[in-house]
Write a structure and sequence with these properties.
By secondary structure, this protein is mainly α. It is 70% helix and 8% strand. A two-stranded antiparallel sheet has the order 1-2. The mean pLDDT is 88.
Length: 144
């Protein structure tokens, strides 16, 4: 039996948790946070949807399959380590930084952000792969 309250609030929790996970991801290179914790927060958002509506609906809300998310994340992490090799500025995964100002905003960007995005996607994909598989196994056992 599903909870009416959880079903009603699941969409709001989902959006709020995803926005918060991106906030955690983006503040990670200067303050506590980053790709791993942000990825766990995003996976928790999909967990709420899974508990409220089932794994099939949560999978439909995903843009990419969890395994593809992991592949994209590994690709981003590898790509983040290549710029120093191309410019002969350091070794693999030696991170480069760019600081500038656009209008009133002070920006500090670097290859670490791309690495963190890669970790974010790997964590989301890994956690959701496990979650969906456990949900399928539980459904198979319940039907027996």
């Amino acid at each position: 039996m599903q909870s009416v309250i959880l079903n009603a609030l699941a969409r709001m929790f989902f959006v709020a948790m995803l926005v918060f996970s991106v906030f955690i991801l983006l503040r990670g290179h200067d303050e506590p946070g980053g790709g791993f914790i942000g990825g766990l927060a995003a996976a928790s958002a999909y967990t709420i949807v899974t508990l409220a509506f089932g794994a099939a609906r949560a999978q439909r809300w995903l843009i990419l399959h969890p395994v593809v998310l992991m592949g994209v994340g590994i690709f981003c992490a590898i790509i983040s380590g290549l710029p120093p090799l191309i410019g002969d500025l350091g070794g693999f995964l030696y991170h480069l930084w760019w600081e500038g100002q656009i209008g009133f905003f002070q920006l500090k960007l670097g290859t670490t952000l791309l690495f963190d995005i890669g970790v974010y996607f790997v964590v989301i994909g890994g956690v959701l792969s496990i979650l969906f598989r456990m949900y399928e196994t539980g459904a198979e056992e319940a039907s027996e």
